[in-house]
Write a structure and sequence with these properties.
This protein has 331 residues and is α/β, with parallel strands linked by helices. The chain contains 15 helices and 10 strands. It has 2 domains: 2-17 and 26-105 and 213-318, D-Maltodextrin-Binding Protein, domain 2 (3-Layer(aba) Sandwich); 112-211, Periplasmic binding protein-like II (D-Maltodextrin-Binding Protein, domain 2). It has helices at residues 2-6, 9-17, 41-47, 65-73, 84-92, 141-152, 157-160, 170-178, 189-198, 207-211, 223-228, 230-249, 252-266, 293-304, 315-318, and strands at residues 29-34, 55-61, 80-83, 97-106, 112-117, 132-135, 164-167, 184-188, 201-206, 214-222. The chain has a 5-stranded mixed β-sheet with strand order 7-6-8-5-9, with helices on both faces. It has a 3-stranded antiparallel β-sheet with strand order 3-10-4, with helices on both faces. The chain starts with a helix and ends in a 13-residue tail after the last helix.
Length: 331
Amino acid sequence: MIKRLASLVPLLLAVTACGTAQGAAETQELRYQGSVGTVTFPELAEELGYLKPVKLKWIGNTTSGPQDIQTAATGQSDFGGAFNGAVVKLVAAKAPIKAVISYYGSDQNSYQGYFTLQDSPIRGARDLIGKKVGMNTLGAHAEAVLKEYLKRGGLTPAEIKQVELVAVPPVSTEQSLRQKQIDVAVLGGILRDKALARGGLKVLFKDVDLFGDFSAGTYVLTDRFIKQNPNTTRKFVEATAKAIQWTQTHTREEVVAEFKKIIAKRGRNEDSTTVGFWKSSGVATKGGVIEPQEFQRWISWLEGAGEIKPGQIKPQDVYTNAYNPFVSGGS
């Protein structure tokens, strides 16, 4: 993963170098990637009027968090979001980006679970040696949590390598498990709830079992964008923070109704069923304020895994709360 990200550095630096003229007007349009059948916090912020006069411009849908932040880093979009470990990797590869606000996480209502079939002999970490674990993408949240579980379960690095990770499209993960193409399926959100409703599955562990409630991913902007658009940056973070707080202080029914309205208005021929299963933001802090441990946890893990050098990255190298109005308990 580090090598792949490192290959982007020449392009990233070139993009950073070719800025607009000093004093140019700040952009009032933010290009971004969305996700089918879901509503992002910036989209909610725009609908609630928090983002004005800045507007969003949808350029397509992302395939994964790492892809989304790489798209932002190379200037194809203006912001992107991913698992914090993936953000650390990109910064370690010298990408000129900064995390500015947390946007997803896990709690008792919104979590990623690692499921087996009901009659599976898998009971603990050691049982996963030689087994296949299916997840939406490699090098992100699901992989990092799994490897932490294996480490806590007493597996050596050599034994951990014997657990096979398989990238499976989210909509196919449950089916792959039931057909025994994989031994463990990582499921979250509506896909988890629907799979559990059909029965025959049991949870091996959840990410919240390891870490408690925690914010897991952040939106990033490039250093160049922040420098050239400080007011737009502040508006983006402020509006997104207010949208997160709106979901944290309104009922589930109100949030779902707003999400369905947004999906209907944007006219992308989507099914709004998914948002009907929304339960919580999953963001552990008020308005998405970033806590140092949200990055230190994964920095330490990456150091232990040998993916970054000890001391190479510090949390303050990766994120800033400078633009979040809730950082000092504001409203």
